[in-house]
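Structure in, sequence out. Go:
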């Protein structure tokens, strides 16, 4: 009887471990929301590689490098037509400002991004 109980507990533990690993794997493949407010709340949880995986390479990017070493410490990426406002309309451009590998600022523009931030909505990303 003890052996049967031990085997049952062992099988249950193995099944629970597989379920936990499957949930962890699926959460690492989470999609980035595209609705404005949800995007702002969650974008800093994703790395540059994960952002590229979902949205592709940015339409335009600029890097800020440390003089002499060439190390990239900040980046500005522009994407077109990836985010929607609350009314469902698309922002023409989304600007993502990075420090190292994390987004620290998001700006939604109603232009192609060449005119600056005057015609858009700007948000600081909440710290984790």
């Amino acid at each position: 009887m003890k052996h049967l109980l031990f085997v049952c507990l062992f099988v249950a533990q193995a099944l629970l471990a597989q379920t936990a690993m499957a949930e962890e794997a699926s959460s690492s493949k989470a999609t980035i929301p595209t609705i404005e407010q949800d995007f702002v709340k969650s974008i800093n949880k994703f790395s540059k590689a994960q952002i590229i995986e979902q949205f592709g390479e940015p339409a335009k990017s600029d890097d800020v490098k440390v003089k002499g070493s060439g190390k990239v410490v900040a980046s500005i990426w522009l994407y077109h037509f990836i985010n929607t406002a609350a009314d469902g309309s698309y922002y023409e451009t989304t600007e993502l400002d990075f420090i190292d590998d994390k987004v620290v600022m998001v700006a939604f523009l109603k232009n192609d991004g060449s005119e600056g931030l005057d015609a858009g909505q700007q948000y600081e990303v909440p710290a984790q």
